[in-house]
Amino acid sequence: MSMRNVIALPLLLCIGTAFAQEHTHHTMPAQAQAQDAHAALRQPAETETQSSAQPASLSASGYRPPALTDADRAAAFPLLRSHHDHADPLLWMLQANRFEWTQADALAWSGNAWIGHDRGRLWLRSEGERTHGKTSARLEALWGKPVNAWWDVVAGVRHDSGHGPARDWLAVGVQGLAPYKFEVQATAYLGSGGRSLLHAEAEYEMLLTNKLMLQPRIEASFHGRDDRTRGIGAGLSETSAGLRLRYEIRREFAPYIGYAWAQKHGRTASLAEAAGGTANESGWVAGLRFWF
């Protein structure tokens, strides 16, 4: 072997070793990346398998929620009032729906009071006005029996005074809250001498703000026969309407202003004009609405 071959052989061995190390250095990261990617692909599946197996382990633990008892149901849904509950306290209320001074220089009022239980109540209703020292009013005493959560049937007596001889009536009617929250009263009356009367009224409260209320109101009266001594004719005798805006300083105390109309019809209008009066009236009103 010549000297040239002796020198070339070690050089070839060194180059081969370096090439092998470099090839190994570039190949190992690729294999490691492939293994890492394979592990990443397997990890969600293993996690999903573990999470899906978790409820099974919980159900396998044998836990069951306790059965509901009557005490649990009573605590969740308490009875507000039982028909057999004797704790029905005696309650009462006095309310002035309208207590006002009118532009015609008259003091007018309309209100009611009641006392009783949920099973039945005694109602007192009053409406009238005092003009130039003369008072015209009606007073009713009625027993009210609820027929459902919204309506009462009432029956009793009524007494009219002022503007002629006094009149007494037997009364029966309904009062309550109609759909769309209209407060309604409709009462039929039967008096002596074949006299009859039907009176109906309705009002609605429009909430403008938490304290500001707009209240439209309308009422009408029908008489079965003439009562000339009191200036009343048969048929539709009178209608009235009003629009009042009140501010509730408290729910129990609210001043208001408004505008009211009153119109006599038919023979009632003719009798009023023959007596020197007018068939229609209108004007501003101001007053208080209160209750306790």
Question: Which key features would you list for this structure?
Answer:
alpha+beta, 2 domains, elongated, Cu-R_B_prcur, Copper resistance protein B, signal
| Rounded Rg | 45 Å
Structural class label: alpha+beta
Low-confidence stretches: 1-34, 37-59
SSE pattern: HHEEEEEEEEEEEEHE
What coarse outline follows from CA principal-axis ratios? elongated
CATH classification class of the largest domain: Mainly Beta
Major sheet: arrangement of strands: 1-2-3-4-5-6-7-8-10-11-12-13
CATH architecture of the largest domain: Beta Barrel
Tell me the span between the first and last alpha carbons: 132 Å
Q: Would you give an account of this structure?
A:
Residues 30-40, 50-61 have a biased composition (Low complexity). InterPro entries: Cu-R_B_prcur. It comes from Thermomonas beijingensis. The chain is of the alpha+beta class. It folds into two domains: 1-30; 91-291, monomeric porin ompg (Porin, Beta Barrel), CATH 2.40.160. The protein has three helices and 13 strands; from the N terminus they run H-H-E-E-E-E-E-E-E-E-E-E-E-E-H-E. The protein has helices at 3-60, 70-76, 266-274, and strands at residues 91-102, 106-117, 120-131, 134-146, 151-161, 167-178, 182-191, 196-203, 206-207, 212-223, 235-247, 253-264, 280-291. It has a twelve-stranded antiparallel beta barrel with strand order 1-2-3-4-5-6-7-8-10-11-12-13. It is elongated, with a radius of gyration of 45 Å.
